[in-house]
Amino acid sequence: MKSLKPLVISGREVLPLVEGGKGIAVSNGESSGAWAAAGGVGTFSGVNADFYDETGKLIPAVYHGKTRRERHEELIAYGIRGGIAQARIAHDLAQGQGRIHMNVLWEMGGAERILHGVLEGAKGLVHGVTCGAGMPYRVAEIAASYGVHYYPIVSSARAFNALWKRAYHKYADLLGGVVYEDPWLAGGHNGLSNSEDPLEPQAPLPRVRALRAAMRECGAPERPIFMAGGVWYLREWTDWMDNPELGPIAFQFGTRPLLTEESPISLAWKRRLVELQPGDVLLHKFSPTGFYSSAVKNGFIAELVQRLDHQIPFTAEAIGEHTAELPIGLRGRVVYVTPHDKQRAETWARTGFSEPLRTPDSTLIFVAPERAEMIRRDQTECMGCLSACAFSNWSQGETGSTGKKADPRSFCIQKTLQNIVHDGNVDDELMFAGHNAHRFSTDPFYAGGFIPTVRQLIERVQTGD
Length: 465
Fold this sequence. Notes:
By secondary structure, the protein is an alpha/beta fold. It has two domains: about 10-265 and about 440-460, Alpha-Beta Barrel (TIM Barrel), CATH 3.20.20; about 300-425, no CATH class. Helix content is about 30%, strand content about 15%. The chain has helices at about 30-35, 70-95, 110-120, 140-145, 155-165, 205-215, 265-275, 300-310, 340-350, 370-380, 415-425, 455-460, and strands at about 5-10, 10-15, 15-20, 40-45, 100-105, 130, 150-155, 180, 190, 225-230, 250-255, 280-285, 290-295, 310-315, 325-330, 335, 355-360, 365. It has an eight-stranded parallel beta sheet. Strands 9-13-12 form a three-stranded antiparallel beta sheet, with no helix packed on it. It has a three-stranded antiparallel beta sheet with strand order 14-18-17. A hairpin with a 7-residue loop joins strand 12 (about 280-285) and strand 13.
């Protein structure tokens, strides 16, 4: 394999190996600090990061506000406090080596305020900000105001062009690089556009070639492109190295760092990773963000799929084939469905799925009463963790609402991600993963249940394996 050449990233020459940021404490100060200490670029999550008391004990994020707006303000305060805490941990563990980046989702609740708060409170500790899940036009301005490099996460040349023309050309000097996140291979939220087919993956090389060409055409500086999604063995990517068409390339690892000693996920989660087989990761659109995302097929995903299977359209009046009366709710209000769908609904009710819930698309889903109660409770307890949430209909705008009905086909993403990282239940919670996660089971590096340190992983990666 070709030897890896160091690249200048966020103002320092480092290994072109990047830890992918993973939200809600899955990449934290310990994992990112260890990655930087080994000479690479560590990335802690600035999405509702953990924070601690003076003894180092985790402080659970408990919300006391009576309204969504009050809880949203608490969430922002928690997010700033947590981001500063993780930046300090990462900085201390890095011991002056590598670079430390902070990852945020642009569509997270209070993203701009949290970015300002963390970069102000952790001055000099964060060298770069990566930002995606939306079109982060203002991230360049915010990062530049603190002298910090910024790294937009995009999935196409078109997205970068839009960002550059609207905002980034004003802050060209601090563009540290561009993260190309493959929408068919990466874990977590993916940037599939409406014109792209989730079932028809496109090879990353032509898309990254087009991204570099677009960067050069618009006059962007020749900064590294981080290839993110599907990277496992570097020997499979040698044609990307020293390739003049692509320019400088760094490789971002999101899934492999999960299985390290410094990774904060539970042992149960780590054991589940090495059991995965091809096809065990699903690209789906259940997320309340409205984006596609990739997660392990488990009980949590199966229940969401079941909600769609138990779904029928309805009308308020008898129209066309919708002639069968179906009473719903405590008051038995009548809606109209097809005779066939009425039979299906009655069958579901007899097997325990007796609670109909309305969706914004004039459909009903049928769930068990205890599931309906949980859905309603989660919607009521929303703390505004997103800028706009399809599940609860929260919006951080003036009205506090998206103007649409809350969608019971989705879920409270804050709740489930906090649960899986802190309680370790890997079957009943959302478990994000990239589509190459099944390779843990066949990679000899992990034979016998071996869990490497971050340094051991980086050393292994540099061999090509």
